[in-house]
Structure prediction request, 308 residues.
Amino acid sequence: MKIYRFLLLLGLIFLIAGIYLNENWNIFINARMLCYSCIGIE
Amino acid sequence: MLRFRVFFQAGALLFYNSSFLFSYESCPVPGLNCYACPIAGGACPIGSLQHFMVLRRIPFFLIGFFLMIGALVGRMVCGWVCPIGWLQEVMYRVKTKKVAVNYKPLRYLKYLILLVLVLVIPFISGEPWFSKLCFVGTIQAGIPLVLTDQNLRGMIGTLFYLKLITTALTLTSFFLIKRPFCRFICPLGATYSLFNPISYARLEVEKSCTGCGKCRETCPVEISVYEEPNSPECIRCLKCTTCAHVNFRLGQKKEKLTTREVEQHV
Prediction:
């Protein structure tokens, strides 16, 4: 199996695991809302 | 295909900052785009990665996201759909004195930034330190929000002024050096660069190449394509394919051995 195909498959497994765990979605939303660091405020 | 690159870059900028049209803020975007920007549609992959480090959780979705993009196109994201890459290209076109930076160890700085500021320090300290220094946040979120929001204006302190200084320095370097952020600093580029040598989309140099160096002259990251066509530094902008000896292809070419080569192998 070519290495990029293996990585694609592995990536797909991780993507599905991330969606299945569901908590990731909340973290992404929280990350966006809480990003005072990006703005430059402590 | 090459002449459409600017439309891809503009389209990506619009797509990443389209919360007024539709929002997908729970999903990361492939390029570098600050999610604190008031009109950002998606999440910054590096910001999200730091956030997972701060929470000390495994970023399954992000790992899958990086693996899939990396395996398919490698650093092509930097050359085609990154707004910061586009900004650097536009600013470098301004006629000023130009500086060529060929000091090779500098290219490893981005890996150090990825490891230290994005992964290790946020994990230990609980603070996203790359975001605290990132100039993208200043131009997309810091300056517009501080100018328009009186409450935020009252909250600014040393960090904000530190970010203004790093932003000024970074933007100045864009006028002088070819893609300095992509080459020396960007942790997202560092992540994708690991996949460049094995990705599905790749560059190939024909055996008839004379090594004239034309590809190096056109290259925005100053690499010798004829020596290492799938270098981790290559952003796959495909400018070098204007030379007839450099080809873009999908998948690895199946080498056909000549009868003489077969005999030699046997």
Notes: Chain A touches chain B through 36 residues (CB under 8 Å).
